């Protein structure tokens, strides 16, 4: 291990491509990253915005890295805020606890400010280093939950909503946007162009199954390994819980696990009653510059409704 004098951060260096990058993230996360995943998460342009990659070098060795992708968050007053999201932040196991992630996060904020962003978002399970790094830098934490199946669902056979295969059309995001205007007004990730929504929610690195559920709900399920990930759900709020129950029950019938992410405060207790487990986390929002801090602090009081698939 060399001292910290040889530590530097490179922005979009040439040479670290999907083959090397996927291998690096596999070593950091301890779960397999394919080249297709690396390209989708780290190198996919979004609208006219190219993502950035930050690579932290100790001497000549890559020891940590992260991606920065650029999105819009729309608050209930109608403002579309230009934000960035830090993705796939990883430090090699033998190099942890040296402040590398914190350095990457500071550099992400600086890069985001250069690109005119209000805040850096990060998705973190509570009580993890990455969440604590955000907190140390003064980020606002918006409560969220990582919801998953563990053991058998309650009342799975009583799940009554009908599920059938569907075809995604451009009307899906438009109809969901209409639902968002009802009370309570919510803050959401905003996709002004249906093509951007499709690239985020439908054209994902693993197969995506579009479904109609009950009389009003539509869902997109990404089949990742042995898990059905509910990436997007829209419909009448009164049918939402029953739709989640139906999707989780279908996963169970297929011998698969179920996963979804939620920032809706009412979801946690409801899904626990179904027999799902909800692990607490935070949607972290770090002001990219001091002048944006008052705006970002106000976001804590808003009702956020992020889709799992917004989370990258
Ligand atoms: C999460 C992760 C990126 C953190 O990387 P890291 O480089 O170890 O992070 P840091 O060194 O900045 O911070 C880690 C801890 O070391 C501590 N630390 C930093 N510098 C230190 C120093 N000089 N001496 C002692 N402790 C130090 C930090 O305070 C922090 O402590 P905490 O966990 O109690 O808050 C890393 O664990 C990882 O790659 N995990 C797997 C991938 C993952 O989960 N990524 C999530 C982000 S998307």
Biggest sheet details: 13 strands, mixed
Q: What is CATH's topology name of the largest domain?
A: Aminopeptidase
What is the helical fraction, as a range of percent? 25-40%
User: How do the SSEs run, as a string of H and E?
Assistant: EHHEEEHEHEEHEHEEEHEHEH
Distance between the termini: 33 Å
What is the correct CATH architecture of the largest domain? Answer: 3-Layer(aba) Sandwich
* SS class: alpha+beta
Spans of at least 5 consecutive residues whose pLDDT stays below 50 are: none
Helix count, DSSP H or I runs of 4 or more residues:
9
Report the sheet-strand fraction.
25-35%
Radius of gyration: 20 Å
How many β-strands, per DSSP? 13
Q: Cofactors and ligands present?
A: coenzyme A
Shape descriptor = globular
Average per-residue pLDDT, rounded, comes to: 94
The CATH fourth-level homologous superfamily of the largest domain = Gcn5-related N-acetyltransferase (GNAT)
What is the number of domains? 2
The CATH class assignment of the largest domain is Alpha Beta
Describe the structure.
- This protein has two domains: 4-146 and 280-311, Aminopeptidase (3-Layer(aba) Sandwich), CATH 3.40.630; 147-278, Aminopeptidase, CATH 3.40.630.
- It has 312 residues and is of the alpha+beta class.
- It has helices at residues 18-29, 35-43, 100-114, 129-136, 171-180, 194-201, 237-253, 267-273, 293-298; strands spanning 7-11, 52-58, 61-74, 80-91, 119-125, 140-149, 163-165, 188-189, 208-213, 217-224, 227-234, 257-262, 276-287.
- It starts with 6 loop residues before the first strand and ends in a 14-residue tail after the last helix.
- β10 and β11 form a beta hairpin.
- The longest helix is centred in the last third of the chain and has 17 residues, at 237-253.
- Strands 1, 2, 3, 4, 5, 6, 7, 8, 9, 10, 11, 12 and 13 form a 13-stranded mixed sheet that branches.
- The structure holds coenzyme A.
- Residues 28-29, 64, 89-91, 96-102, 129-130, 132-133 line the site of coenzyme A.
């Amino acid at each position: 291990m060399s001292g910290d004098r040889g530590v530097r951060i490179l922005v979009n260096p040439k040479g670290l491509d999907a083959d090397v990058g996927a291998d690096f993230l596999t070593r950091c996360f301890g779960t397999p990253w394919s080249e297709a995943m690396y390209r989708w998460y780290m190198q996919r342009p979004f609208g006219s915005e190219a993502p950035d990659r930050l690579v932290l070098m100790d001497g000549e060795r890559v020891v940590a890295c992260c991606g920065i992708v650029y999105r819009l968050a729309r608050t209930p007053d109608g403002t579309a805020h230009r934000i960035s999201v830090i993705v796939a932040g990883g430090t090699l196991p033998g190099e942890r606890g040296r402040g590398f992630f914190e350095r990457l996060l500071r550099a992400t904020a600086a890069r985001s400010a250069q690109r005119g962003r209000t805040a850096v978002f990060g998705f973190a399970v509570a009580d993890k280093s990455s969440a604590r790094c955000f907190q140390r830098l003064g980020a606002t934490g918006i409560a969220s939950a990582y919801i998953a199946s563990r053991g058998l669902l309650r009342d799975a056979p009583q799940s009554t909503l009908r599920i059938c295969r569907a075809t995604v059309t451009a009307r899906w995001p438009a109809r969901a946007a209409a639902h968002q205007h009802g009370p309570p007004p919510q803050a959401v990730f905003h996709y002004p162009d249906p093509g951007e929504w499709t690239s985020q929610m439908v054209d994902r690195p693993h197969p995506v199954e579009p479904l109609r559920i009950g009389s009003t709900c539509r869902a997109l399920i990404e089949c990742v390994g042995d898990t059905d990930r509910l990436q997007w759900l829209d419909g009448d709020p009164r049918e939402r819980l029953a739709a989640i129950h139906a999707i989780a029950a279908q996963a169970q019938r297929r011998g698969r696990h179920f996963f979804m992410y939620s920032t809706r405060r009412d979801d946690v207790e409801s899904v626990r009653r179904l027999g799902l487990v909800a692990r607490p986390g935070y949607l972290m929002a770090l002001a990219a510059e001091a002048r944006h801090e008052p705006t970002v602090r106000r976001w804590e009081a808003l009702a956020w409704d992020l889709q799992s698939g917004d989370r990258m």
